[in-house]
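Deliverable D5.2: sample structural annotation.
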Amino acid sequence: MTNAFNMAKLLRIEIHSYPNKSQITYKEEGRTFHYTVLKEGFYPNKKLLKFTRKPNSFPLPDIYEVITTWGRRRNQHAVKCSINYEIPSQSLEYTLAIGLNGY
């Protein structure tokens, strides 16, 4: 079982020429995700900057939008995600739209 887990880790690959092209493809055993960055956003100053949950804890940019698609043909799914910092409350507005044409 450990060998299968280690092999799966080795089969993860990210294909992109970002920031030259806004498309990013992430592949792992049995599935592929396609990302299109619509708005790159920016990182606010450290006092306002928010992060994802630990253990990875990545910084979250403001005014960021990305579309993620996965699946094939009739079974294709799409999600549009956006992040906007709400000032002066210093909270995050995270929007998730689901569907190929639903956003």
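Annotation notes: The chain has one domain: 2-98. Helices lie at 2-10.
The annotation will be released with the project's public dataset once the embargo ends.
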